[in-house]
Amino acid sequence: MRGLAGWAVLVALGEWLWAGGVVPLAEFYPFGPAQGDAATRKQDDGGSELRPLSVPFPFFGAGHTGLYVNNNGIISFLKEVSQFTPVAFPISKDRRVVAAFWADVDNRRAGDVYYRESTEQPILERASRDIAQYFPEFPGFSAQWVFIATWYRVTFFGGSSFSPVNTFQIVLITDGKLSFTIFNYESITWTTGMHASSGGDFAGLGGIAAQAGFNAGDGKRYFNIPGSRTDDIADVEMTTNVGIPGRWVFRIDDAQVQVGGCSNTTSVCLTLRPCLNGGKCIEDCITGNPSYTCSCLAGFTGKRCHIDVDECLSQPCQNGATCLNGANSFSCRCPPGFRGANCETEESPCESKVCQNGGRCQAENGTAACLCQPGYTGTDCQTEVNECESSPCLNGGHCVDLLHNYTCVCPEPFVGQRCETDLSSCEDRSCRNRQTCNYIRPGRYICTCSPGYYGNNCQFGEPRVPSACLSQPCQNAGSCLETEQGYVCECREGYTGQDCRDKLSEGCECRNGGSCLEGNVTICQCPPGFFGLLCEFEVTTTPCNMNTQCPDGGYCMEYGGSYLCVCHTDYGTNHTLPSPCDSEPCLNGGSCEVHDDSYTCECPRGFLGKHCEKAKPRLCSTAPCRNGGTCREADGEYHCTCPYRFTGKHCEIGKPDPCASGPCQNGGTCFHYIGKYKCDCAPGYAGRHCEIVPSPCFLSPCENGATCQDLGGGYACTCPVGYVGKHCQSEVDCGVPSEVKHARASFNSTKVGSLAEYQCELGYTLGQHNHPRICRALGVWSDPPECDEIDECQSQPCLNGGQCKDRVAQFL
Predict the structure, then answer these.
(1) Which terminus of the chain is more exposed, N or C, with fewer CB under 10 A?
(2) How far apart are the C-alpha atoms of 5 and 138, rounded to whole Å?
(3) pLDDT confidence of 400, banded at 50, 70, 90?
(4) In the structure, what pLDDT confidence band is assigned to residue 455 with cuts at 50, 70 and 90?
(5) What is the pLDDT, as a whole number, of residue 150?
(6) CATH number at residue 724
């Protein structure tokens, strides 16, 4: 007896590597409703009821007369197995199982689990041939019974109808004494369910992966396919022990697997190390007959993996390309004008042109040119346009370059997109939103903002009650103004504080009815007709012109559309004025500098405005980071933190995607995960890249029980009796039977096999060879009968020498 026979192929993934493996569905044992299969219920962790067997099945020294087909990839004897997280073999508690892929299957989301037992002669003959091929020591093996269970396009717990799916099959074979099992793997794209105990992710990977093999249930005897309960089980369709990637075959009747698996004390693998070229040695675990199997890396074969497979023998390179054979791979050296792994694609000028940063290639007159996205330039759109190079900011403004844009940080008193507007004069309409501008002197003015507006130039807000002021936070009749940071209270005379809660101490120095601002005794809000730091200047009604001296040393200025004198009120020449900076007018940590009777604020980083009350524009406000990147500001610049698979200053450059080259053919769906990709093939297609086209008979095109024959480039249907058409879709109809003279026909159908009976009219009788007409397979009725006239004179009815004359239905 032999346990694990032949060799296995393990395939490395890579864009330029040929990938073999998987058993096409056409090479599965036939399955599905068309074969009369039953199906398990659509139930998580469910399965079939106990299925009685017509022939006892030997397994580990015992004959079993029933079994369970479990949704989670197992056939079990003695009891149902609903556990979804695979327990490492060996296990006891009567867990006698054959497991092709023990994992958390959920056929409610996708897929079906089919099963049947068969004693049909074609199935038995195929099973006998398979066992004779894989076990030459049993050349006369003749199968008497076969059980076929197929998990078709099933997904995992936590998945959906769009999640990856697996297709695999268990075949049990016996002649009543010897028994065998075959595992077929067509597509394995997930390994683990998403239940917390399994730990799989949204792609069905990671955690405690699936287990494949068989277990005696005594806690001692078992066998695991290499890679079980690890991520490597995802490649089980690339491995084998019989020389056919995706197929494993075992003898399982007489329980010759050693106790505890394979003993290291007599290990052939450890002693001889027979496998070459990176092949993995597997103990065959046969008591009294130590042997081994080499699981070869892709590109090698032979009992000891000593034969290098020449991948160029199949001439994979097209269009005159040169094939270069390598270890487990080949590469094609393409002639000019062609590209692709097999040089199968004819290049256009844009094929070799890489346009960066979202640029689009356009072919013109045999050459390629890049059409760049806004904000980029260069022959390959490789250079980001620096919008600050043209120095767009005026009046000393500082330009900050953004993606396809720029922003200007303006010095006081300039504003605007390019710092083009000077806010130092009422003539420039410095007060925004049609608010009142009060001119003080050249270079100085004050804007009076109506409720709802705020800022030095009433540039913020709108004519409504700001949302931040709805709660009326300002106390003691203070006025509330909304700001970018929330709100600001303008307090009534005598009060100060953030919410005007604090009462000012005595000592305000404002004159002529002026009131101190924000608790200071040196910054005054003057009543109409008075100006100055302490409201010490009065606008009189004395007319003047620019050449006229006003009384008391006053000076002439424009006011209210005319020229009037502005005079000192009651301060002497020796009065010492307070410093404009005493009131600490600079906000947000700004430093105050005195200039004559005025001041300027030196603002810290991130703020601007006369009183440093305005935050500088946020560089991240334009959302420069693409593809889900996160924008962060630091030291006057912005930086993009890019998500996985993107890089570049603005996360605009995509990292290589193993699925981007479209490796999956014939409508297959590509799923990528770290270091690998998998193709989920459309029904009927197989192969690593879904390159194996199904037989045209795969979809069962022939109807009404017809037999489908694969003709290589097409198919033909052999119709059963009574059906015609390309797909045997039309039932044969003979139509109404033809009339027979002197007879009436009766029939109840015109289909194949129907009968038409005839009854002759009075005076006629059916001919000697009359039979009912039958509708034949070709769609025609059999020959009609004849009605012969009855000779009434034949009985010599006339007496005493009378002469008889025959008439229809009478005589004379």
Answers:
(1) C
(2) 14
(3) confident
(4) confident
(5) 97
(6) 2.10.25.10
Residues 236 and 173 in one domain: yes
8 Å CB contact between 381 and 358: yes
Would you state the structure tokens that stand for residue 382, as one six-digit string? Answer: 């490789």
Q: Is 672 exposed, middle or buried (0-12, 13-18, 19+ CB in 10 A)?
A: middle
d(C-alpha 189, C-alpha 101), whole Å: 12
Question: How far lies 132's CA from each of 141, 143, 239, in Å?
Answer: 6, 10, 21
* Statement to judge: residues 766 and 626 lie in one domain: no
Q: Are residues 712 and 775 in the same domain?
A: no
Q: Of the candidates 731, 746, 775, which is a domain's last residue?
A: 731
Rounded CA-CA distance 320/762 in Å is 87
Instruction: Indicate the number of domains in the chain.
Output: 5
**119 lies in the same domain as 232:** yes
Instruction: Give yes or no: residues 727 and 739 share one domain.
Output: no
Q: What is the pLDDT of residue 342?
A: 86
pLDDT value at residue 117:
96
DSSP code for 713: S
Which residue's structure tokens are 């699981």?
295
Per DSSP, the three-state class of 10 is strand
Cβ distance 511 to 534 under 8 Å? yes
Tokens of 371: 């059409």
What SS3 class is residue 585? coil
| 311, 17 Cβ separation under 8 angstroms | no
Residue 287 has pLDDT above 70, yes or no: no
Strand-pairing partners, residue 332, are 323
- Tokens found for residue 158: 């936590």
Q: Is residue 627 a contact partner of residue 651, using CB atoms and an 8 Å limit? A: yes
Distance CA 223, CA 229 (A): 13
Alpha-carbon distance values, 781 to 326, 747, 749, 787 (Å): 69, 12, 12, 18
**301: in domain:** no
CB under 8 A, 24+ apart: contacts of 649-652 = 649/384, 650/403, 650/624, 650/625, 650/626, 651/625, 651/626, 651/627, 652/357, 652/358, 652/626, 652/627
Question: Of 462, 468, 525, 460, which Cα lies nearest the Cα of 492?
Answer: 525
Pairing of strands 486-490, 495-496: unpaired
Cβ atoms of 174 and 181 within 8 Å: the answer is no
Query: How far is residue 279's CA from residue 763's CA, in Å, rounded to a whole number?
Result: 95
Encode pLDDT of 551-602 as tens digits.
Answer: 555 666 666 556 666 665 554 433 344 577 876 778 778 888 887 667 788 8
Q: Is residue 201 located within the same domain as residue 316?
A: no
The 8-class DSSP code of residue 132 comes to H
CB 509 within 8 A of CB 532: no
Indicate the residue among 716, 731, 746 that finishes a domain.
731
What pLDDT was estimated at residue 593?
Answer: 85
Summarize pLDDT for 680-722 with one digit per residue, the tens.
777 777 777 887 777 777 777 898 888 888 776 788 898 888 8
Note the residue count of the chain.
Answer: 812
Nearest alpha carbon to residue 443 among 430, 434, 433, 432: 430
CATH number of domain containing 793: 2.10.70.10
Query: How far is 747 from 766, CA to CA, in rounded Å?
Result: 17
Which DSSP symbol is given to 649? Answer: T
At residue 641, φ and ψ (nearest 5 deg) are: -95, 115
Confidence of residue 260 (pLDDT cuts 50, 70, 90): very low
What lies within 8 Å, CB to CB, of 749 at 6+ separation is 775
> Are 209 and 340 within one domain?
no
| CA–CA distance, 481 with 466 (Å, rounded to integer) | 7
CA distance 621 to 374: 18
Task: Please report, for the chain, how many H helices and E strands are present, in that order.
Answer: 2, 64
Higher-scoring residue by pLDDT: 188, 662: 188
- Please give the residue range of the domain that contains residue 626: 619-651
Residues 724 and 799 in one domain: no
Number of CB atoms found within 10 A of residue 179's CB = 24
Q: Is residue 495 within 8 Å of 503, Cβ to Cβ?
A: yes
Instruction: Tokens 């268990």: give the residue.
Output: 170
Whether 131 is in a domain gets the answer yes
787 within some domain: yes
